[in-house]
Amino acid sequence: MFEPEIAIVGSGPSGFFAAEALLKAGIGARVGMFDRLPTPYGLVRSGVAPDHQQIKQVVKVFDNLASNPQFSFFGNIDVGSDISLGSLRSRYDAVILAYGASAGTSLSIPGSRLAQSITASDFVGWYNGHPDFANFDPRFDHECAVVVGHGNVAIDVARILLSDHARLAKTDMADHAIEALRHSRVRRVHLVGRRGTIQASFTTAELRELLGLSDVRVVIEPDVLQLDEEERGFLELPVNAAIKRNFGIISDAASRGSDGEATRELHLKFLASPVTIEGTDRVEAVHFVRNRLEGPIACRRAVPSGERFSISAGLTIASIGFQGRPLGDVPFDDRRGIIPNVEGRVTGDSIGGASLYVAGWIKRGATGIIGTNRADAAETVRTLLADFRDKRWSVKTDRPQALAPPGNPRINFADWKRIDEAECRSGQEVGRPRRKIVSIDAMLDIARSGEAPATPSQPAA
Ligand SMILES: Cc1cc2nc3c(=O)[nH]c(=O)nc-3n(C[C@H](O)[C@H](O)[C@H](O)COP(=O)(O)OP(=O)(O)OC[C@H]3O[C@@H](n4cnc5c(N)ncnc54)[C@H](O)[C@@H]3O)c2cc1C
Description:
The protein is α/β, with parallel strands linked by helices. It folds into 2 domains: 5-102 and 324-411, 3-Layer(aba) Sandwich (Rossmann fold); 105-320, FAD/NAD(P)-binding domain (3-Layer(bba) Sandwich), CATH 3.50.50. The protein has 15 helices and 18 strands. The protein has helices at residues 13-23, 43-46, 59-66, 85-91, 120-127, 152-162, 165-168, 175-182, 204-211, 229-236, 241-256, 361-364, 372-389, 413-428, 440-449, and strands at 5-9, 30-34, 71-74, 94-97, 103-104, 117-119, 144-148, 188-192, 216-219, 264-269, 272-278, 285-294, 301-312, 315-318, 322-323, 341-342, 345-346, 355-358. The strands form 5 sheets. The protein has a 6-stranded parallel beta sheet. It has a 5-stranded parallel beta sheet with strand order 3-2-1-4-18, sandwiched between helices. α1 (13-23) links the parallel β1 (5-9) and β2. The longest helix is centred in the C-terminal third of the chain and has 18 residues, at 372-389. The radius of gyration is 24 Å and the shape is globular. Residues 452-461 have low confidence and may be disordered. Flavin-adenine dinucleotide (FAD) binds at residues 9-15, 34-37, 42-43, 47-48, 52, 55, 78-80, 98-100, 102, 124, 153, 156, 322, 360-361, 368-370, 373.
């Protein structure tokens, strides 16, 4: 046992799975996990949809890890602002960067900076009570909203916009979002993707749930269901079973026809890209070009056809990807939005101090589900251990006893548990899993006193 001290930056799934691999490696590792928020769990708390509580059960695994005496949580510390990465590197033997890649990619078309042209990242952060988005102000005062993108996050966004309000009000959605959506006038959502039915990256369960929402009429243009011979052959390949299943679900929804009773509509649109967003002070309409597909069947590209159409809408939400951000002097690949690495070891790092590693979305880009990060983080820890054996780093014999004090008060895991209990208690009183506290000041008050404020979800004035 060589008993290294390892810092992990970020307490999302990849940070916790890296901690798990280190603590189970039998090397006597001590882990210090840092997060810029007082709350742990990353996108499990601020990304996973509030009506998917089952998925959030993974935090029980993380809580179990956090109870290990070799593990410490330092919340409310932004590495890069409150403390420097350099000071972490002088204190710890190795540092794993697991700080995610959750900044939303914006549409870069004329009009995309208009008010109410937003990213899914901002919208999701807002309805999930991420403190950064407490004062965000999406408007639901127009009958129609446009969601651009055909992935699972786009599905989450469309489902939230179209869901029965009573259903959302029973979840842990932030109070401010429940309140704003209570008055929503949105009745029609256009979910638009640039490619065709067999290129969309929805997963089957999410697609089925969206197309089966109660009180929602699904509208799909029949043209998009016409496949040529090559496409039909593609669907028959065993490796494409999931794509074939999704195509079947889309075809079934299209053929179910109109439910005359439904009060809301989902227009699932394929082969179209937004080209301009129009409006004086805010979004009023989105103009699209229809696309055709070109290239080999397995990687068809969308090419504009010249044919145009427009949708009158008051809100546009772009769900076209997420990106990482650089941290200080750490090498960064701007094109891919990740930290360059080989199996988790940061490459091109010329700054001294502890060795640097990466895990999760900042290592490989914003792809994969929560579970994907377990194998990803395990790979990083394998590299880290191999590097120790190869003498690329060593355990410090002389280290500063404490880090320089950060500007913010620290939150340890017991503090977080007090916040957690306050949220759950307040939620249970009204039949909800929790009522999220959004204001960091309110969280810090609870961490110190253990008492919940009267209105836990209100942002600080
Ligand atoms: C909207 C959305 C919904 C999703 N839904 C699902 C789902 O239903 N099921 C599923 O399996 N997967 C889902 N995913 C994917 C899943 O959330 C990701 O695979 C996973 O969260 C990535 O983990 P991560 O640890 O790399 O990053 P993150 O979860 O983003 O964690 C990064 C952490 O780093 C912290 N941090 C950032 N910068 C700093 C800094 N400078 N200093 C200190 N800390 C910092 C952040 O506060 C955060 O806690 C969803 C993703 C999104 C975006």
